[in-house]
Amino acid sequence: MLLTDSHCHFDFAAFGGANKQARAHHWQRAQAVGVHRLVIPGIEAAQWPTLAPLCARYRGLYYALGLHPWWLANAPSSWQTQLAAALAQADKGCVAVGEIGLDRHLSVAQEQQEDALIAQLKLAHHYQLPVILHSVGTHDRVLKWLRRYPVVGGVVHGFSGSLQQAEAFWKLGFYIGVGGSISYPRANKTRRAIAVLPVEALVLETDAPDMPLCGFQGQDNHPSQLPLVLSSLAKLRQSDEATLAIQLEHNVNQLFDFANNKL
Ligand SMILES: [Zn+2]
Fold it and tell me: Is residue 260 a part of any domain in this protein?
C-alpha cells in the first residue's frame, strides 16, 4: 500500500535539522510503512532556498513555496519579490504555492493577512500551480478571495469545519486535507463532514511534527503515522483501507503534478 503525505514539515528540526543522517533515518521510517512521497510546505523567505536541495537529496520528497500567515509579521518587506523569484527559478520538485491563508487566532490584522493571501493567489495563477491553504476560523473569507482570484486548484490542509464549508471548497476545485484531527472523537462536525464528502475530494496528511493523532498527544507527529490517519478515515467511512488508499493516491496525483517525479 503506497501513501502520500500531502503536508509534512519535514524540514523542521524535529526531523534532524542539519543532521543529514538523522533526516535520512526519519524518511526511511516513513518509507518502511508505505509513505513513498511527501510534500513540504513553504513557510518563510529564509527557508525557500533550502527546499529544492533538500528534496533533490531524497526520492519522493516535494515542496511548495509560500509565506505562511504565522510568519507574516516577521517577513522581510521584499518577501513578495523574493517569492516571485523563487517560483521563477523553482525546479520540478516544486508542486504548489503554499502554505498560504488566513488565521483568526493571529494578532496580525486581517486586512494584512488578506493582502498576503491575494498576492500569493495571483502568483499561483501566474505559474498555474495549485495552492496549499491554511484556514483557521476563516473559511468564509478564504472562499470569498478564492472566488475573486481563481487558481487552478489546491487543498485545504488540516480541514476542520462543516460539511457545507467543505463542499464549497470542493466546488471550487479544492481537495480536503484529512489529518490526525479526525481521530479525536470530539471533532464531531469535522468527522461528520469527512464521513460523507465524496471520496474523490480527500487527500491524506500528517502536518508532522504538528497535529499528533489521538493517543499520541504531547509527542512529535511523524510521517510514519500516515497509515493511522488512513485507518481512522477507513473506519469513519466504513470502507476498506486498501481500496481507499488507491483512491487517495489517485486524488493526490490529480492535485499535485508529480508527473516529472523522481521516483
Ligand atoms: Zn503546515
Answer: no
What CATH number is attached to the domain comprising 184? 3.20.20.140
Centroid of ligand 1 to alpha carbon of 242 (angstroms): 27
pLDDT at 262 over 50: no
Nearest to 227 by CA among 180, 261, 161: 180
Amino acid at 99: E
Range of the domain at 51: 3-255
What are the grid coordinates assigned to 161, written together?
A: 469545519
The 10s digit of each residue's pLDDT in 97-136 is 999 999 999 999 999 999 999 999 999 999 999 999 999 9
Contact between 252 and 4 (Cβ < 8 Å):
yes
**d(CA 93, ligand 1 centre) in Å:** 18
What are 231's three cell numbers? 485507518
Tell me if 263 is assigned to some domain.
no
Side-chain-side CA neighbours of 149 within 13 Å: the count stands at: 19
CA of 210 to the centre of ligand 1 (A): 8
- The answer to whether residue 216 is domain-embedded is yes
Sequence-distant (6+) residues with CB within 8 A of 154 are 96, 98, 124, 130, 131, 132, 133, 173, 174, 175, 255
**Count of other CB atoms within 10 angstroms of residue 226:** 25
Residue 261 in any domain: the answer is no
3 state DSSP class of 143:
helix
CA of 207 from ligand 1 middle (Å) equals: 5
* CA 67 to ligand 1 center in whole angstroms: 11
How many structural domains is the chain composed of? 1
